[in-house]
Amino acid sequence: MAGTDKASLPSSPARYATEYVPLLEGSPAMREIRTLIESVADTDATVLIRGESGVGKDLVARSLHAASNRANGPFVKVNCAAIPQGLLESEFFGHEKGAFTGAHRRKPGQFEYANTGSFYLDEVAELPLSLQAKLLHVLQDFRFSRVGGHGAIDVDTRIIAATNRDLEQAIARGEFREDLYYRLNVVEVRIPPLRERKEDIPSLVSRFLTSFNQQYGRNKQISSETLHRLIEYPWPGNVRELENIVRRIVVLNDGEQAFEAMCARRRVNHAASAPAPITTESLRDIARRGAREAERRALAEVLERVKWNRAEASRSLKVSYKTLLTKIAECGLTPPNSRLSP
Ligand SMILES: Nc1ncnc2c1ncn2[C@@H]1O[C@H](COP(=O)(O)OP(=O)(O)OP(=O)(O)O)[C@@H](O)[C@H]1O
Ligand SMILES: [Mg+2]
Predict the structure, then answer these.
(1) Is the domain of 209 the same as that of 105?
(2) Where among 248, 273, 298 does a domain terminate?
(3) Do 310 and 264 share a structural domain?
(4) CA-to-CA distance for 97 and 232, rounded, in angstroms?
(5) 273 vs 316, which has greater pLDDT?
(6) Which of 3, 72, 317, 329 is an S-S bond match for 82, by CB 3.0 to 4.6 Å?
(7) CATH number at residue 230
(8) Ligand 2 mean position to 54 CA, how many Å?
(9) What is the CATH number of the domain that holds 116?
């Protein structure tokens, strides 16, 4: 079913060391997360993983499972946002035959499948309030009954939850139960966004490069200029976005240039949208500033397109070479190489 997956291969603590530990090394923030994972792995304490989309919450959940003494049991993931709300309860707890229209057979729930392993509730903030209440109840004693059933079923599993939402705000808005929040948040793992741990970028790039070169039978290298750009870039989509960019660089012939052009567009947009200080400028000054900004943007775009070949840019913009140089200086534009030097 969409939103649910089960680990098909048995895991073991050895797998944690070889597969996961190398991904949790690097920045002090990630090393701290690794220490936390290892210190709580065998405790069965419920763990709440928080962080923006793409920071590595799934990875941390799987690492925690792999490091625990449940590693040989199943890792069952349910994405609470991917399953229609009406089906969530039966997906979690299963149903008996005839429990509702369409329930032709008895079906165990994912909670049951997670017996002896870990139950990963992804995007937990999306759970409807009614199911939050039921989940809280079940988490008191890990005993539940299937939808339409009466017998109690006991489950031995470890709960790991994740969210990219501000749960405190969801509680304030009445969208998330405070008691469930405390029940889930026994141990909190906060994964910082990639822009706050840029030390991780070079090793991630090199890991992705090796893996995609292997996957696509290429031998692409990344120039030090592009690496600088990759470090500079703010990564709103975090590690997932970095992974996709490196994949594009490996797959496309002009992948590096495409990334460079994307950075240039961002710089230009950023410069244009920087908040203007409150001033007492006249309307004429404001109009002049607007025109200058438009000129700067056009100039930057042309220069990026011709890779800073000034003669070609002057022809393209139909100004003399000297005028072009003056404009470049007036607009404070600098070629990529000099921007990279400290
Ligand atoms: N430290 C890391 N080393 C290698 N790959 C990583 C690392 N962190 C994340 N990734 C990769 O980045 C991608 C996104 O990670 P993941 O799915 O764990 O993020 P997420 O926080 O769960 O995102 P979402 O909120 O969208 O569910 C995955 O392909 C994952 O393998
Ligand atoms: Mg995820």
Answers:
(1) no
(2) 273
(3) no
(4) 57
(5) 316
(6) 3
(7) 1.10.8.60
(8) 7
(9) 3.40.50.300
Q: How many domains does the chain have?
A: 3
**Predicted structure pTM score:** 0.78
Within 13 Å, how many C-alpha atoms sit on residue 225's CB side?
Answer: 10
Cβ-contact 209, 246 below 8 angstroms? yes
Q: Which ligand is nearest to the CA of 238?
A: 1
Domain that holds residue 279: 275-342
Residues 268-291: tens digit of each pLDDT: 887 777 665 555 566 777 777 777
Predicted local confidence at residue 4, as pLDDT? 52
Mean pLDDT of 161-172: 96
Same domain, 58 and 178: yes
The number of the ligand 1 atom at minimal distance from the alpha carbon of 62 is: 18
| Domain CATH for 306 | 1.10.10
Nearest protein CA to atom 24 of ligand 1, as residue: 53
Please check whether residues 187 and 202 belong to one and the same domain. no
* Closest protein CA for atom 23 of ligand 1: 54
Residue 205 Cα to ligand 2 middle (Å): 20
CB burial of 288-310 (b: ≥16 within 10 Å; e: otherwise) equals eeeeebeebbebbebbbebebee
pLDDT digits (tens, 9 = 90+) for 27-77: 999 999 999 999 999 999 999 999 999 999 999 999 999 999 999 999 999
Predicted confidence at residue 131, as pLDDT, reads: 93
Question: Which residues sit with their C-beta closer than 6 Å to ligand 1?
Answer: 23, 51, 53-59, 164, 204, 207, 239-240, 243
